TrEMBL record:
The keyword rRNA processing does not apply. One of its GO terms (molecular function) is urocanate hydratase activity. It comes from Roseisolibacter agri. This is Urocanate hydratase. Its cofactor is NAD(+). Residues 141-349 form the Urocanase Rossmann-like domain. PANTHER family: UROCANATE HYDRATASE (PTHR12216:SF4). The active site is at C411.
Length: 555
């Protein structure tokens, strides 16, 4: 049914330029980033206050949005606004170096942490779903997922292929909201990518935005294109219209073995996400309504064939990994015992980065002027000349990433480098080389900020997957260090009951006080990640801790 949005819906866009609408830049930054999250160029369903990830919201209702905006406009530089699941509930006198906003979203007492109970409470107007960067006002559009996927593929290249995916074939499926980043992130790493997608309109969308190079309807045609590119060593992405549960077993039968195989079909949801083989999209949509149980029976059977084919390709020599969509669990629960022979992407490729305090570092130009981001791109290249993956990313991102909303950039930086870069950004603002302050933040998916046993903390070395103290400590440490706003959420990408995570955002306004706060926050925030992984016994983290002089009493 057509959706007119929640009561009070209207288009929202962040102010640009240097004129303040609040009493200071920290408050102004929070206001602009809240509004930027709801910019029609950024948000998936702005009228419903939904920013991304199903129902991840920036505010609980339009009434609450208006109240947050009014509170931020009136907020003094020694006050803190308290936000409870998207609703402003108090303004307190604190001090100048304290956060201007503290936020808690979607948290439930563990015994009650189920989707059913969450939805009941949401219906009563008592909570909202905050996802990770929706309810914490630091979403920057699809650049984040492109960069995260780029980083994963770069880690795959480093581990298995001598640092480059040139001449390598990456086979994947699912080119949707997040999965559509795979084709671009793959070619940015030099790879040939074959992406199987059952819904042709999804491929067309990726072609239109330049995320995917070509479309094919026929496997022979697609294979001819990718084999040609693979031999010539040129990067190419091809979206093949088809069902992964048909195409992958056919590749196994033909003996076509890719270098890498993964998957981002929406297998976390066997009714509304994954499409069974043997049905057209229209037939699948009809069956979903007419006989949901039969739909799930068929989609599950398809996922089993799909995962079995991934496993067969792995046995034949392909590097295989699960990309956080839960498809292994589906196949395993339906009786495919070898499903977990395919490793998850975090333990395999991301955790070594987490051990160094590396994670997604992003910044946004409050001026709205792309020239400010171009100046900061140059700064990143000046400061980190030896980081090849970062160089290639920044260079390609300048060319291929279109800004959505306020201009922004993301790259992965580790312990030491985050603080150096943040302070250097503040110095640029102080020297007047940028036209307005810069907001520095990150995803909740980061080194020390999340407890999530099916994703970020899967298969921890010491078995501490479900220990959530670390995420809470991360939020507390960010408050103590003087971040501009700090958030603590439940749910996120893996859903209610499955994760707890924290975020921080800090504003480089060029002042000496913010310089000190940035130095502290950007040292202690990733530092908690190094500490968390050192505590779990990772040698890379223990080495990083001693290299950076982190004081860990029992290490
Ligand atoms: P989406 O629903 O936007 O896209 C999924 C796509 O898969 C759709 O385009 C759909 O047509 C296609 N599809 C479904 N069944 C198929 C089949 N059998 N064969 C071929 N194509 C099929 O979802 P999304 O936002 O792109 O996310 C994809 C999955 O990745 C989700 O399960 C999500 O939870 C997961 N995810 C993981 C991470 C991570 O941890 N790295 C990040 C984001 C999303």
């Amino acid at each position: 049914a057509p959706n007119a949005g929640l009561p009070g819906a209207r288009p929202v866009r962040a102010p640009r330029g240097t004129a303040l609408t609040c009493k200071g830049w920290e408050q102004e930054a929070a206001l602009r980033m809240l509004m930027n999250n709801l910019d029609p160029d950024v948000a998936e369903r702005p009228d419903d206050l939904v920013v991304y990830g199903g129902t991840g919201r920036a505010a609980r209702s339009w009434e609450a949005f208006d109240a947050i905006v009014a509170a931020l406009r009136a907020l003094e530089g020694d006050e803190t606004l308290v936000v409870q699941s998207g609703k402003p509930v108090a303004v307190l006198r604190t001090h100048a170096a304290a956060p201007r906003v503290v936020i808690a979203n979607s948290n439930l007492v563990p015994r009650f942490a189920t989707w059913d109970e969450f939805r009941r409470l949401e219906q009563l107007g008592l909570t909202m779903y905050g996802q990770m960067t929706a309810g914490s006002w630091i979403y920057i559009g699809s650049q984040g997922i492109v960069q995260g996927t780029y980083e994963t593929f770069a880690a795959v290249a480093n581990r298995h292929f001598g640092g480059s995916l040139a001449g390598r074939l990456v086979l994947t499926a699912g080119l949707g909201g997040m999965g559509g980043a795979q084709t671009l992130a793959g070619t940015m790493n030099g790879a040939v990518v074959l992406g199987v997608e059952v819904d042709e309109s999804r491929i067309d969308k990726r072609l239109a935005t330049g995320y995917c190079d070509r479309k094919a309807h026929d496997l022979d045609e697609a294979l001819a294109q990718v084999e040609h590119a693979r031999r010539s060593g040129s990067a190419l992405s091809v979206g093949l219209v088809g069902n992964a549960a048909d195409v992958l077993p056919e590749l196994v039968r033909r003996g076509v073995v890719p270098d890498v195989v993964t998957d981002q079909t929406s297998a976390h949801d066997m009714l509304h996400g994954y499409v069974p083989a043997g049905l057209t999209l229209a037939e699948a949509a009809a069956l979903r309504v007419d006989d949901p149980a039969e739909y799930v029976r068929r989609s599950t059977a398809s996922a089993v064939r799909h995962v079995a084919a991934m496993r067969a390709l792995q046995k034949a020599g392909a590097v295989a990994f699960d990309y956080g969509n839960n498809i292994r669990t589906v196949a395993y629960d339906a009786g495919f015992a070898e499903a977990f022979e395919i490793p998850g992407f975090v333990p395999e490729y991301i955790r070594p980065l987490f051990c160094e305090g590396k994670g997604p570092f992003r910044w946004v130009a409050l001026s709205g002027d792309p020239a400010d981001i171009h100046r900061t791109d140059a700064l990143a290249l000046e400061l980190f000349p030896h980081d090849h993956a970062l160089r290639r990313w920044i260079t390609l991102a300048r060319e291929k990433i279109h800004f959505q909303g306020l201009p922004a950039r993301i790259c992965w930086l580790g312990q030491g480098d985050r603080a150096r870069f943040g302070v250097a950004l503040n110095d640029l603002v102080a020297r007047g080389e940028l036209s307005a302050p810069i907001v520095i933040g990150r995803d909740h998916l980061d080194t020390g900020s999340v407890a999530s046993p099916f994703r970020e903390t899967e298969a921890m070395r010491d078995g501490s997957d479900a220990i959530a103290d670390w995420a809470i400590l991360n939020a507390l440490v960010n408050v103590a260090s003087g971040a501009s706003w700090v958030s603590f959420h439940h749910g996120g990408g893996v859903g209610i009951g499955n994760s707890l995570h924290a975020g921080q955002v800090t504003v480089a306004d060029g002042s000496p006080l913010m310089r000190e706060r940035l130095q502290r926050v950007l040292t202690n925030d990733p530092g908690m990640g190094v500490a968390r992984h050192a505590d779990a016994g990772y040698p890379e983290a223990i080495a990083a801790a001693s290299r950076h002089g982190l004081n860990l009493p029992m290490r």
